[in-house]
Amino acid sequence: MEAGASAARRRARPELALRGAGLTYLGIMVVLPIVAMAWQAARPGPAAFWAAITEPYAWHALKLTLTTAFVMVFVGAVTGTATAWVLVRYEFPGRGLVNALIDLPFAVPTVVTGLMLVALYGPDSVLGAIMARGGWKVIYDQPGIILALLFVTYPFVIRSVQPVLLAMDRAEEEAAATLGAGPFTTFLRVTLPTLWPSILTGSALAFSRALGEYGSVVMVAGNQPLLTRTAPIHIFGEIESGNRDGALAVSAVLLAASLLVLVILHALQRRGEERDAS
Question: What is the pLDDT of residue 4?
Fold first, then answer.
């Protein structure tokens, strides 16, 4: 019996060591920086913190960042789900290449992304000039910010929805079609409830990613105060001008928003798992 207990302890040691190493790495790389930034942002006091985030330039930058991120999430959820659907449900020439290109935004430096969008939609480009004649201004305006965010977050919803579609049993969809339901009704009543958690996951990750996007946005936005200056650009400007407390306060708001979205997502996923288990 003692020999068995000793063997169990020996087997548990590597597991404890790996668990400790993983938690230590998480603490050093994620938790400690968050705690350090939160502490320094709160150090000047609540009044100074509130004044820093409600200052007109900071407040507009925060509102612009959140608004463009929400618009991006809505558009990205629809287009990402549609793209995943096409890749899974249809055979067409070049599907493998299209599937590979979806991950390209993860590999392309964000500054290069911004430069590509300026080259395509900028005022000196053919397409930009045509759109300008029709009253559509993309680059150096807020639509350009949304376009940049859509590009850098493009894979999130697709890669979240794709495996769920691949694993779906199509018997329920076929049964709905047999009972007379059209394709749109079948999608809304049968397919979408299954895909919804994965769409939500991809959208939440895209939203959190969009809150901190700097490289592509600074190229397409033009850094115009009270018009196209987003919160990350504002933070960089405050650091350059020596207002470290102001930069920390706005950074803390972005961090809190990202954490809140991820916590809500985790709670919804856990509730869904408990409902499925019951």
Answer: 53
